[in-house]
Amino acid sequence: MKYGIYYAYWEKAWQADYIPYVKKVKDLGFDILEVGCHHFLDADDEFLIKLKNEAEVQGITLTGGYGPDKAHDIASADPAIVKAAFEKYEAIFKKMKTAGIKWLGGGLYSYWPADYSKPLDKAGDRARSIANIRTLGDMAAEYDITLGMEVLNRFEGYILNTCEEALDFVTKVDRKNVTIMLDTFHMNIEEDSFFDAVKLAGDRLGHLHVGEANRHCPNAGGRMPWKEIGDALHEIGYNGKVVMEPFVLEGGEVGQDIRVWRDLSKGASMEQLDKDAADSVKFLRDLWG
């Protein structure tokens, strides 16, 4: 398996200069840096090429995450919103190609976070999403991009809350580059069994996000059953990407959107955050291989 971390662990704003993080994560013992593609449309090609080149120099794989807003909801009943979604995805895919990124995951099948202030049409949204993700999968394939349908907890999304729902979804989409993306934070809320959920995903599992139940870095002192999760990954022969997505800093856009209402880092310096991340990836490597 290859291990990575999401850049926003160190940031309070979603828009960031990813280039310095490439060497940082390499030095901390990671193989992957996951970046946010939501602001790629604001990035010029010079920046993206520098990012790609730095990743190649450091031997780091770049992966991307994206949470569409409601104005770009591919499951919408409004044709204008769906059209805008496809146009934005096309633009993002072009930027990803320039940056050498071949993986994009998140709540791509809808929007994030869900707005529950009005009645929902889950069945209708799901049906539209399946049809439109088929098209999106074909678009992504032209750029050699694989898509991950992230299974979200009920408070953040409603179309895919469990691995069972995700498996049915990607089976109906029926595109090789449209896969399941699991996240232990969301699984902790929704799944009856970590082991069974991972096993159910099987060879459809394309990406795994990891973190403690309170979004700390994975660690031996947490309450997540890391050995059980690792055993399930080995049983299905998973040899893909494992990216930790810790959020511990209060404040800013990131803290607001992720609902971090207290300083989970307990005043940690950047040096301490680095050490926690390095210790965490070593913990997972030692446990899972």
Topology:
Elements: E1 2-6, H1 19-28, E2 32-36, H2 45-58, E3 61-65, H3 79-99, E4 103-106, H4 122-141, E5 146-150, H5 163-173, E6 178-183, H6 184-190, H7 194-201, E7 205-210, H8 226-235, E8 241-244, H9 252-258, H10 270-288
Parallel strand pairs: 1-2, 1-8, 2-3, 3-4, 4-5, 5-6, 6-7, 7-8
Task: Characterise this structure.
The protein has 10 helices and 8 strands. Helix 1 links the parallel strand 1 (2-6) and strand 2. It starts with a strand and ends with a helix. Helices cover 44% and strands 14% of the residues. By secondary structure, the chain is an alpha/beta fold. Helix 2 (45-58) packs across helix 3 (79-99), helix 3 runs parallel beside helix 4 and helix 4 crosses helix 5.
Helix count, DSSP H or I runs of 4 or more residues:
10
Shape: globular
Distance between the termini: 7 Å
Instruction: State the low-pLDDT regions, or none.
Output: none
Sheet with most strands: strand arrangement:
1-2-3-4-5-6-7-8
Assess the beta-strand content as a share of residues.
Answer: 5-15%
| pLDDT averaged over residues | 97
Tell me the helix content.
Answer: 40-55%
Judged by helices, strands and strand pairing, the structural class is alpha/beta
The string of secondary-structure elements, in order, is EHEHEHEHEHEHHEHEHH
Q: For the report, how would you describe the main beta sheet?
A: 8 strands, parallel, barrel
Number of E-state strands: 8
For the CA atoms, what is the radius of gyration? 18 Å
